[in-house]
Design a protein that fits this description.
alpha/beta, TIM Barrel, eight-stranded parallel sheet, about 10% strand, DeoC, lyase, EC 4.1.2.4, Deoxyribose-phosphate aldolase, plasmid
Length: about 325
């Protein structure tokens, strides 16, 4: 029964909620935390390749996992041709990601789930906040010169502050790749610390742009430094790099989250972004979180997926689960 499967995996309140977990206070800069930090690339590749084969999620269980995935989506529009109307339509989809008749067929109450957040440029934060009023869905703003992250530092801080003032509850910042590529870890720490302070009460997600920082060792070290400096989430990509989220870099990042938890007792969230566009791929990321970090990391408090087209494929898969037929993509506008 889907109801039984749903109860085991889907444990959300009726609506998306603002963060209630404790913030990451960070720790003093200590380069010794990076001593001996090495990544076995072959072992990472072997482990990542098994994520889609070790655990079979089928039928009712798969439908339940996909319903859970919807609640963890940061539904995103980050295009040069964005308009207030597009953002408002995106927010309407975030409020009602699935049709009521489909939810009813799955044994769920009408309008019982929402996406985890809506993610937009600063220009549209006020539009999104207004459109989501009363829903409990937080607005996330990309900031700090997204996607390149090459704006002057003072301007980056002002952009963060402006988005928070407009109502953003989450800020997705871009680190300066140069600091990682040159091994200037103190500069990365100081930058991230400033971003954390500028966010105030808003949660901060640190985008590492893993496709640009070249090596898995850099990914591991940058992850640890950003968490040390107070990042509440670490995020793979802007979605604008040549290579975005992959299971390999995600495995390295969640292992660093596990290491940081062991050292500090602080839970850090993870957000893959860019390229997670199918129901099959999102299940692999959910399995990664479950096996590497545990059940708690299947909730939107600690797991988000940055996506724009993913929702349409999940909706198609759920419709197939109910009816045995796949609908056309053009039946799922905005998703």
């Amino acid at each position: 029964m889907l109801e039984t499967a749903t109860k085991s995996i889907v444990a959300w309140p009726g609506k998306a909620q603002a963060h209630t977990s404790a913030r990451n206070p960070g720790v003093p800069f200590d380069l010794a935390w990076l001593d001996g930090l090495r990544v076995n690339q072959s072992a990472v590749a072997r482990r990542a390749s098994t994520l889609g084969t070790r655990r079979a999620v089928k039928k009712d269980a798969q439908a339940a996992w996909l319903l859970k995935a919807i609640t963890c989506i940061d539904l995103t529009t980050l295009n040069g041709d964005d308009t207030p109307g597009r953002v408002e339509r995106l927010c309407a989809k975030a409020r009602r990601p699935l049709r009521d008749d489909l939810l009813d067929s799955l044994g769920m109450a009408p309008a019982s789930i929402t996406t985890g957040a809506v993610c937009v440029y600063h220009r549209y934060v006020k539009t999104a906040v207004h459109a989501l009023q009363g829903s409990g869905i937080p607005v996330a703003a990309v900031s700090t010169g997204f996607p390149a992250g090459l704006n002057p530092h003072a301007l980056k801080l002002r952009e963060i502050e402006a988005s928070v003032a407009d109502g953003a509850a989450e800020i997705d910042i871009v680190v300066t790749r140069e600091h990682v590529l040159t091994g200037n870890w103190k500069a990365l720490y100081d930058e991230m610390r400033d971003f954390r302070a500028a966010c105030g009460d808003a949660h901060v997600k640190a985008i590492l742009a893993t496709g640009d920082i070249r090596t898995l060792s850099n990914v591991a070290k940058a992850s640890m430094i950003c968490m040390m400096a107070g990042a509440d989430f670490i995020k793979t990509s802007t979605g604008k790099e040549g290579v975005n989220a992959t299971l390999d870099v995600s495995l390295v990042m969640v292992r660093m989250i596990r290491e940081y938890l062991a050292r500090t007792g602080v839970l850090i969230g993870f957000k893959p972004a860019g390229g997670v566009s199918t129901a099959k791929s999102v299940l692999e990321y959910q399995i990664l979180m479950k096996e590497e970090l545990g059940r708690e990391w299947l909730e939107p408090e600690l797991f988000r997926i940055g996506a724009s087209s993913l929702l349409s494929d999940i909706e198609r898969q759920l419709e197939h689960h109910v009816s045995g037929r796949y609908s056309a993509f053009n039946r799922h506008p905005v998703a």
